C-alpha cells in the first residue's frame, strides 16, 4: 500500500482512500500527494474518515501541537494537526481563544490555545505524572490511534517487558490535552509516544528504538550495566535460510538487531538445485503434500461414479504438468521469502558459509567470489541432506527426495529404498497418481512410531497396489539402458540372510535418512562440538552450542525432531531469548506429527510399546476403534481401515500419553487434539467433549473398547 500510494494518481487515490482510508498511515503519502489532496479538496470534502487518517509528516513538525480541547470543539478529535485546514479554523468558537498559524501550503500548523495546563489543575496533573513515572519502571504516554505508539508498545511486548501505558486520547474532555501540556513542560517533547524508564526521559519512538539497537534498553530497564558494545559487522548471522533460520533471522531483526542470512543450495549429484526457503518449501513438506493431494484427487475421481458422477474416460495423471505447477508454486514461495527478508531488513546472502573462527565466516557465491564477514553471534541452521548408501551406483544412478519433485521426465517404475516417512510418503503418492511403485524395507515400517499402526499403513498401501520387499537391503545399482527414465537393475540381499534378489525398475529413490550439513562448516575452528555418531551439533536446552556465541536449531541440532514447525518455533524463541531477555525454552515434548501416506497417520506422544516400556503393561489402558470414514462408504473401500487409539496411564486418572489416528485429514484432526494432549487431557476430558457428527475425529469422543477386554474394535453403522 505504502509504495503504491507514493506513485498513484490522485484521482485514483481519492477513490481508493474513500474505501481504504483506514489502511493509510503517516508516511504512506508524499508531500506532493498531500498537496494534490488539498487541491482536490478531499480533506475538507468529508469523504475521508478523519479519525483514522494521518498525514505523511506530522511528526516532522515540531510546532505541530493542536490542543485536544480545540480538536474536540472542532469535532476532529483524532485528526492529526497538519490536516487541519483554514476551514476548520472558521469553526473555532471564540471561547477557545485560540491563535491560528497557517503554513504556506494552507494547512494549519499550530493552534495555541489559552487553556492553561498549569494552575491548580495543572499542578495536580503534573504531580500525578511525576508519581506515575516514579512508580513504574517503564511508562509510555501514548495515543491509541498513533502507529508510532503502537510500534513502541509492540517492541516492549516482544521484549517481554511489562509497561504502564497512559492513553491520552481516551481521557475525559480536556484532560488529555492538559496531560500533554504537562508532559511538554516536563520533557520538552511535544509528541507521543513519550517514554520514561526508571524515571529517566527516553524520548519518542525513534529515540527508544535507537537505545534498543545500541543494546542499552534492556539493561536500562533491569537497572544493569550496559551490555558491552561489539565491533563486529553484524549482531547475528544465520547460516541456513530454511524453516528455522528464516524464522530466527526475521525475529531477531524485528527486535532491532543487524542480521544477515547466508543460504546456498549445493546441487544434488544429478544436478537439482532450488531457491530460498530450505528443505520444507523446496524439496520437502510443500511439494510432498501437493503431490499427496494429487493422489487424493485421483482417489476422489475413482470414488466419483459411486457419487453419481459419470466420468467420460479413466483419467490419467500428467507428470510433467504436475511438476510444472508444483515448481511454479514453489518459485512464488521463494520470491515471497526474499521479500519477507527484505521487509524485515535482514540481509540475504546467497552464499555458502564456513567458519574461520568463532566470530568470522568466509562465504563464497556461485561465481566463486569469496569474502569474510564478522558477527557477534551465529546461528547454525543448515539442516540436512539425503544420505546415500555406500553401494556401487547409488550416487550416480539413484535419485532422492531432493530430485523427485522436479524430475523433468516421467519416473517410470519406481523403487523406494527405506521404510520411514519419506519412502512411504513418496511410494504412496507415486502409486496414487498411477505410477508403479515398490518399497525395499530393511527391517520395520516407520521406526519409532506405533508399530501396530505402522503395519496397518503398510497393509493398506499393499492393498492399494504398492509392492513391498520386506527384509532386504540394496547392494548395487546397475544401469541396463540409457534413457529418461533409464532402465536400472537393483541387486539386494536379505537383511538377515544370504538370499539375493534382483529388481528391475526405471527410478530408484533413496530415502534412508538424512545427514546434517556440518562437515563443510569448519566447526573445528570454533570449538563447536558435534555428535560422533550423527554428526549433528550438540546443544544445551537453550540451543547454545559448546561455543557460547554460536547456537544451533532445526534438523542440524542433535536430538531435535526433524520437523518444520519445530525448527520455526525454536528459531522464534531463540531470537527472543538472545535479544529480548526472554527465558522461554522450546518444549520438545508431545509434538504432533502426521505421516502423509495414502491413509494418513497423525500422532502425538508415545507409541503403545514405548508407553508400556515406560509405565509397565499393568498401568496402561488402550482405548481403540476401527471404523470406515463416511466418504469411503459409497465407494465401498477401506472398510474398518481407519483407526483411533488413545494410550492412557491408569494411575494418572487415565492421562492420555499417546494419541494415534489413522484416517483421512489426519493433520487437521491431530492438530486440534494436540492442544488437549499438551495440556494433560485425561480419557475423561476427551469423553466429556461432545463430538462433531459426522466426522472421523468424533470417534475419539466415544472410545469405549479397551484392548485389554479383548473385544473386537471393528465397527458397523454410525
Ligand atoms: P532446512 O530447511 O534444511 O534449511 C537449511 C538451509 O541451509 C538449506 O537451504 C541449505 O541449502 C542451507 N545450507 C546448508 N549449509 C549451508 C552453508 N554452509 N552455507 C549456507 N547455506 C547452507 N516436516 C514437517 O514438519 N512436515 C512434513 O510434512 C515434512 N515433510 C518432509 C518431506 C521431505 C521429503 C523431507 C526431506 C522433509 C520433510 N519434513 C517435513 C522435514 C522438514 O522439511 C525439515 O524438518 C525442515 O525443513 C528443517 O528446517 P531447517 O531450518 O532445520 O533446515
Ligand atoms: P528416517 O526416519 O531416518 O528413516 C530411515 C529409513 O531408512 C528407515 O526405515 C531405515 O530402516 C532405513 N534405512 C536406513 N539405512 C538403510 C540402508 N542402508 N539400507 C536400507 N534401508 C536403510 O529417514 P527419512 O524417512 O529419510 O526421514 C528423515 C526425517 O525427515 C524424518 O526423521 C522426519 O522427521 C522428517 N520427515 C517428516 C515428514 C512429515 O512430517 N510428514 C515427512 C518426511 C520426512 P531401519 O528402520 O531398519 O533403520
UniProtKB/TrEMBL annotation:
Required cofactor names: FAD
Residue intervals of the FAD/NAD(P)-binding domain: 234-571
EC number: 1.8.1.9
Residue stretches making up the Pyridine nucleotide-disulphide oxidoreductase dimerisation domain: 591-702
Domain Glutaredoxin: 138-202
Family assignment from sequence similarity: Belongs to the class-I pyridine nucleotide-disulfide oxidoreductase family.
Protein name: thioredoxin-disulfide reductase (NADPH)
Organism: Orchesella dallaii
Source organism phylogeny: Eukaryota, Metazoa, Ecdysozoa, Arthropoda, Hexapoda
Amino acid at each position: 500500500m505504502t509504495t503504491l500510494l507514493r506513485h498513484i494518481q490522485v484521482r485514483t487515490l481519492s477513490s481508493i482512500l474513500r474505501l481504504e482510508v483506514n489502511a493509510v498511515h503517516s508516511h504512506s503519502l508524499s508531500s506532493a500527494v498531500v498537496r494534490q489532496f488539498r487541491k482536490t479538496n478531499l480533506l475538507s470534502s468529508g469523504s475521508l474518515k478523519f479519525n483514522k487518517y494521518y498525514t505523511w509528516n506530522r511528526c516532522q513538525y515540531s510546532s505541530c501541537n493542536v490542543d485536544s480541547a480545540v480538536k474536540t470543539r472542532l469535532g476532529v478529535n483524532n485528526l492529526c494537526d497538519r490536516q487541519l485546514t483554514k476551514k476548520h479554523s472558521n469553526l473555532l468558537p471564540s471561547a477557545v481563544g485560540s491563535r491560528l498559524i497557517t503554513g504556506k501550503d494552507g494547512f494549519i500548523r499550530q493552534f495555541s490555545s489559552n487553556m492553561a495546563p498549569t494552575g491548580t489543575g495543572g499542578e495536580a496533573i503534573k504531580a500525578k505524572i511525576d508519581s506515575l513515572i516514579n512508580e513504574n519502571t517503564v511508562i509510555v504516554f501514548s495515543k491509541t490511534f498513533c502507529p508510532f505508539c503502537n510500534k513502541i508498545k509492540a517492541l516492549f511486548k516482544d521484549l517481554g517487558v511489562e509497561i504502564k501505558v497512559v492513553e491520552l486520547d481516551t481521557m475525559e474532555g480536556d484532560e488529555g490535552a492538559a496531560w500533554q501540556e504537562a508532559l511538554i513542560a516536563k520533557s520538552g517533547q511535544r509528541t507521543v509516544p513519550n517514554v520514561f524508564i526508571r524515571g529517566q526521559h527516553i524520548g519518542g519512538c525513534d529515540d527508544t528504538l535507537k537505545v534498543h539497537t545500541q543494546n542499552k534498553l534492556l539493561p536500562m530497564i533491569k537497572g544493569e550495566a550496559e551490555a558491552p558494545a561489539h565491533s563486529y559487522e553484524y549482531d547475528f548471522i544465520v547460516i541456513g535460510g530454511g524453516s528455522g533460520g528464516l524464522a530466527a533471522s526475521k525475529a531477531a531483526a524485528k527486535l532491532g538487531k543487524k542480521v544477515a542470512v547466508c543460504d546456498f543450495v549445493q546441487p544434488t549429484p544429478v544436478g537439482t538445485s532450488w531457491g530460498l526457503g530450505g528443505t520444507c518449501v523446496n524439496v520437502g513438506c510443500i511439494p510432498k503434500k501437493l503431490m499427496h493431494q494429487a493422489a487424493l484427487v485421483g482417489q476422489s475421481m475413482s470414488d466419483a461414479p459411486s457419487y453419481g458422477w459419470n466420468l467420460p474416460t479413466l483419467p490419467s495423471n500428467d507428470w510433467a504438468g504436475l511438476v510444472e505447477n508444483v515448481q511454479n508454486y514453489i518459485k512464488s514461495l521463494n520470491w515471497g521469502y526474499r521479500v519477507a527478508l527484505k521487509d524485515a531488513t535482514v540481509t540475504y546472502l546467497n552464499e555458502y558459509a564456513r567458519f574461520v573462527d568463532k566470530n568470522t565466516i568466509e562465504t563464497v557465491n556461485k561465481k566463486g567470489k569469496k569474502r569474510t564477514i564478522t558477527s557477534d553471534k551465529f546461528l547454525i541452521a543448515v539442516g540436512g541432506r539425503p544420505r546415500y548408501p555406500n553401494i556401487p551406483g547409488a550416487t550416480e544412478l539413484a535419485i532422492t527426495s531432493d530430485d523427485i519433485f522436479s524430475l523433468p521426465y516421467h519416473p517410470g517404475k519406481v523403487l523406494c529404498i527405506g521404510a520411514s516417512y519419506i519412502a512411504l510418503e513418496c511410494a504412496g503418492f507415486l502409486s496414487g497418481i498411477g505410477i508403479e511403485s515398490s518399497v525395499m524395507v530393511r527391517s520395520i515400517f516407520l521406526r519409532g512410531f506405533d508399530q501396530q499402526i505402522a503395519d496397518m499403513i503398510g497393509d493398506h498401501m499393499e492393498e492399494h497396489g504398492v509392492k513391498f520387499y520386506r527384509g532386504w537391503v540394496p547392494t548395487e545399482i546397475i544401469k541396463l539402458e540409457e534413457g529418461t527414465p533409464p532402465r536400472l537393475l537393483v541387486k539386494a540381499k536379505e537383511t538377515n540372510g544370504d538370499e539375493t534378489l534382483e529388481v528391475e525398475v526405471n527410478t530408484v529413490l533413496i530415502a534412508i535418512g538424512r545427514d546434517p550439513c556440518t562437515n563443510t562448516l569448519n566447526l573445528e575452528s570454533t570449538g563447536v562440538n558435534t555428535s560422533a555418531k550423527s554428526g549433528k551439533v550438540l546443544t544445551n536446552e537453550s540451543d547454545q552450542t559448546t561455543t557460547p556465541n554460536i547456537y544451533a536449531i532445526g534438523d542440524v541440532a542433535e536430538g531435535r525432531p526433524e520437523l518444520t514447525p519445530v525448527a520455526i518455533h525454536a528459531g522464534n524463541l531463540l531470537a527472543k531469548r538472545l535479544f529480548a531477555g526472554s527465558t522461554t525454552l522450546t518444549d520438545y515434548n508431545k509434538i504432533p506429527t502426521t505421516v502423509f501416506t495414502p491413509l494418513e497417520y497423525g500422532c502425538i506422544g508415545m507409541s503403545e510399546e514405548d508407553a508400556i516400556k515406560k509405565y509397565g503393561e499393568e498401568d496402561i489402558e488402550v482405548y481403540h476403534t476401527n471404523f470406515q470414514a463416511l466418504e469411503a462408504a459409497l465407494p465401498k473401500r477401506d472398510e474398518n481401515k481407519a483407526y483411533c487409539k488413545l494410550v492412557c496411564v491408569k494411575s494418572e486418572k487415565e492421562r492420555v500419553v499417546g494419541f494415534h489416528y489413522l484416517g483421512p485429514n489426519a493433520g487437521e484432526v491431530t492438530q486440534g487434539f494436540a492442544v488437549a494432549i499438551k495440556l494433560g487431557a485425561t480419557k475423561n476430558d476427551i469423553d466429556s467433549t461432545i463430538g462433531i457428527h459426522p466426522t472421523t475425529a468424533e470417534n475419539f469422543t466415544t472410545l469405549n473398547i479397551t484392548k485389554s477386554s479383548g473385544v473386537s474394535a471393528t465397527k458397523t453403522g454410525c
